[in-house]
Amino acid sequence: MRHVHAGLRLTGNEEDARDVVQDAYLRRTGGLRRFRGDARFTTWMYRITANCASTQMPGGPETHEDLDDDYQIADGRPDQT
């Protein structure tokens, strides 16, 4: 429950907080072997939760859209023919 409260503080929305915490638990499960014990487990888990919140919330890391194969990309360089 502690992580849901952390997610709520980070997102400001209960539904988003639950999504963030769910993602954090999934990442934790996959990364458990990498936990070195340098910090408390709860500190490590909070960091995962915070990282998940920053990637899922607006204003987080930039996202991109895949381009169609037929999408024309403008080339501003002069022709070299």
Our count of helices gives 3
* Rg measurement, Å: 19 Å
Given the C-alpha coordinates, what overall shape results?
Answer: extended
Mean model confidence by pLDDT: 76
- Amino-to-carboxy terminus distance: 65 Å
Sketch the major β-sheet: none
Strand content: under 5%
CATH class of the domain at 2-56, please?
Answer: Mainly Alpha
Helical content, roughly? 40-55%
The CATH architecture of the domain at 2-56 can be named as Orthogonal Bundle
What would CATH call the homologous superfamily of the domain at 2-56?
RNA polymerase sigma factor, region 2, helix turn helix motif
Q: What structural class is derived from the secondary structure elements? A: mainly alpha
The counted number of beta strands is 0
CATH fold description of the domain at 2-56: Rna Polymerase Sigma Factor, Chain: A
Notable traits:
extended; single chain; 3 helices; mainly alpha; Rna Polymerase Sigma Factor, Chain: A; 81 residues; 0% strand
Short structural description:
The protein has 81 residues and is mostly helical.
